[in-house]
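Box 3.1 A note on notation
Throughout this textbook, protein chains are presented in two layers. The first layer is the amino acid sequence; the second is a token string describing backbone geometry. Keep the layers aligned when reading.
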Amino acid sequence: MSEEKLYERWVRLVRQLEREGIIKNKQIKTAFLKVPRYKFVLDRYKHYAHVDEPLPIPAGQTISAPHMVAIMLEVADLKEGMNVLEIGTGSGWNAALIYELVKRDVYTIERIPELVEFAKRNLEKAGYKDKVHVILGDGTKGFPPKAPYDRIIVTAGAPKVPEPLIEQLKVGGKLIIPVGSYHLWQELYEVIKLDEKGRIKVINHGGVAFVPLIGEHGWRE
């Protein structure tokens, strides 16, 4: 399928998500149109990239359904200039969208070496090589060198909110994270850091389904 045809189908999906009230923010719509999902999937799945469902990526992981990515970005309420950490790079797609919303370097942590390479290749081809920095490591520990963060966005389900991520947030900053069972059912939490003592307010945005967040402050493999 030609790039033109792939993009045509992608635009149709973005408009559908807007009609359904999933994409509300104009900046998120602009980011979605600039960074189509087909640039971040395996070649054999490119012609499914406009379908609003998760798709397989290497190492038994998935790239999230477009509606889920849009929901998390809406909840994150990203603004230009924000310092953002992403946990769970996967394909690199979400990190590229984040960059388009904050217009500054984005740091993203991935624990699977194969996915680090996959994401780096995708990001380079899509023009984000020096804008999105992919780090191999345990995302449940955060990334202290670039803290504190305005936002931390976690794209895997945790058993509980990891303490290091709260510590690395600015006061007033937000952590967006699925919390719940090991596989296929969690609640999407918006965790707001209220003060330097680490007190938090949690807003529940309803049921979601993500792969497990593996690490010292997440699930054990």
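The chain has six helices and nine strands. The chain has a mean pLDDT of 96.
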